[in-house]
Amino acid sequence: MGLLTYACALFALQLIQLPGFLGVSWDSWWTYDGISGPAFWGLINPEWSLCNKGRRQSPVNLEPQRLLFDPNLRPLHIDKHRISGTIANTGHSIIFTVDNDTIYNSYGSISSMSSSSLNNMQISNQIPVNLTGGPLSYRYRFHEIHIHYGLHDQFGSEHSVEGYTFPAEIQIFGYNSQLYTNYSDAVYRAQGIVAVSVLLQLGDLSNPELRMLTDQLDKIRFGGDETPVKRLSVRGLLPDTEHYMTYEGSTTSPSCHETVTWIVLNKPIYITKQQLHALRRLMQGAPDHPKAPLGNNFRPPQPLLHRPVRTNIDFRSKQPGKACPTMYKEVHYKANTWKQH
């Protein structure tokens, strides 16, 4: 960190501590760039110290040659049935939140939702969508979806593979419903959260469930806007694969809690240029003060340090008489951009 940048951070901290700044909400303060960006989340607010000091932070760059095959990893299962909820422009991201008994998003805030939406969420009685299997030891209840994307095609995803970034990334969050009562409780606790990462690649044909979300973007162009979404299939957002990579990490926004089991699927789904254009038209602020475009809402990759990244992608032995899967030194995992042809 340069001296000038550090001085700016100290100046910002002094400003925030002045009486005139006491009314500033931390939730509205942080952004994805500049002196309120990721490099300063943990420096400015002591309650977010994990963002700078944590050693199990997310996202990460996944290096194929460092993957460890784990034969005990099971296929991931997400319930098929459809659900209803609300898609909102929070000023930080696009978030779809299910209508159920949990009213807190992963930022720990309900400020972006109207009172009518909160009432609807509290009285909703729909069957929850559960996430089980994979590396999970517990049952997790689906809570929300985040969409991260770039203002240019070369970047936008939070996770990368061998340094390659995708134009966008969907993150499906659930909380441990066997140990905790809601998301806002689980996000602070061990084994509290699961996050399924679905990388998005440019293509001519889009995922149908993704279209259900992007068709609503004109209604949530500004920060604070929200609109209902009916009968969304969370499972329908997944690519056709049982293969994934998994590691222990954190939420990718403040307070960067290290309570997340990440599952990064091995294939992308596809998003069209038109859908990306619609995303890039969204703004952070209200119509009278739109601020900046909402895009580029991704945190840079964090050090993996000594964390293992396990996978269920197996090299099957082709030698006669060999029944067990084997890893050979002369073979290794390799990244694929999954361009749509």
TrEMBL record:
PROSITE patterns: ALPHA_CA_2. SMART domains: Carb_anhydrase. Keywords: Signal. The keyword Signal applies. CDD domains: alpha_CARP_X_XI_like. Transmembrane segments: none annotated. Residues 28-313 form the Alpha-carbonic anhydrase domain. InterPro entries: Alpha_CARP_X/XI, CA_dom, CA_dom_sf, Carbonic_anhydrase_a-class. GO terms for biological process: one-carbon metabolic process. GO terms for molecular function: carbonate dehydratase activity; zinc ion binding. Residues 1-23 form the signal peptide. The keyword Membrane does not apply. It comes from the Eukaryota. Belongs to the alpha-carbonic anhydrase family. This is Alpha-carbonic anhydrase domain-containing protein. It comes from Chironomus riparius.
